[in-house]
Batch of 2 targets.
Target 1
Amino acid sequence: MVEIGLTVNERQVMMHSCSRCDTRWWDSDGELLPLANLLELVGPAPRG
Ligand SMILES: [Zn+2]
């Protein structure tokens, strides 16, 4: 299990990565953060 803390748009986000099954998930402020919500925080992907 690997945990990496990041700050996304001034929000503290923790990424968890399971080294055994390669599952990844994120949480923010101790609450599970669905991938869709994370992408919302990050904003639209750059184009081009
Ligand atoms: Zn696992």
Target 2
Amino acid sequence: MKILAIAEQREGKFKKTAFEITKAAKEIADKLNCEMVSLVIGSAVESIASELGGFGATRVIVVDDPQLNYYSTTAYTKIISEIAKKESANILLLPASQIGKDLAPRLAVKLDAGLVSDCTALKIEDGNIIATRPIFAGKIISDVKIVADVQIFTLRPNVFTAGSSNGAPATVEKVAVELTQADFAAKAVETKVAVGRPDVTEASIIVSGGRGMKGPENFKLIEDLADVLGAGVGTSRAAVDAGWRPHDEQVGQTGKTVAPNLYFACGISGAIQHLAGMSSSKCIVAINKDKDAPIFQIADYGIVGDVIEVLPVLTQEIKTLLGK
Ligand SMILES: Cc1cc2nc3c(=O)[nH]c(=O)nc-3n(C[C@H](O)[C@H](O)[C@H](O)COP(=O)(O)OP(=O)(O)OC[C@H]3O[C@@H](n4cnc5c(N)ncnc54)[C@H](O)[C@@H]3O)c2cc1C
């Protein structure tokens, strides 16, 4: 048995999920008493690879190639499947990020593997990995065991805790994988990095607004609270469909899945499709004028009131508390 942990990076910086995956892989490796190896793919990424040592990696393979400046579905699939075969790794861990969700099914086909996606917990029973994952938009929590020899798991970001680095070193090995034009059948030509607030999939606090915000102009209240807390801004599909907010902020079944430490749902009813994307948030605060809104059933704290009145007061109180 051997684990291959894929550490995602963007522009030469590890995503938080890279540390979460490394830590989770190390814990599983210890329990199964097996080896683990981490894999970093990109351009000019060799220098960051040893950072994974602080989260439990002892050996890190780096595929560093200028052609990999941008993520490429086809090239990454080739690299990971080749390294997995070369290393005889039979357990692959990836983040359930945009990239991980794209890669995992392709890898499953290439490696003839079983795949469990969007796991929220992993445990060992009788020497097997049992993965927990929410299904049916979060209505059912299922425990799944893969029976295939090669097993792939994608882990929901922000659920597995990485903690902080213990500063331990790791051995870094640069490995070349031959890539031809044919390996770049799909290629990103440009990336635009959103500046300012963190993306909802990475934010540890999210302030989300829905149709109850009444119009795009009132999202200034959401942004004000988000900025005081250093939070990301999220939204419901109703607000996106109305053209009030961009789709990349949408949380839910057809938006992004998030699991922050703190989630504010402001003027959001709590439809099952919205809950599918945020119900694993660690603490949920709902503001809604309807005391019977379904969101209150999963909220840890609820404020029954008009968001337009409540938000400025809340923002001011938090500002005062934080001494801002
Ligand atoms: C296939 C499918 C996929 C979907 N995917 C998603 C998805 O990914 N994400 C998503 O969010 N939805 C998704 N939906 C839509 C979902 O079913 C709901 O329609 C949507 O979540 C509702 O958004 P909302 O809560 O903002 O609006 P509403 O349901 O209209 O709720 C607005 C809430 O605001 C409250 N309110 C109104 N005025 C105020 C005020 N002044 N102060 C305080 N509260 C106020 C109301 O009481 C109400 O609870 C999907 C639907 C389908 C069919």
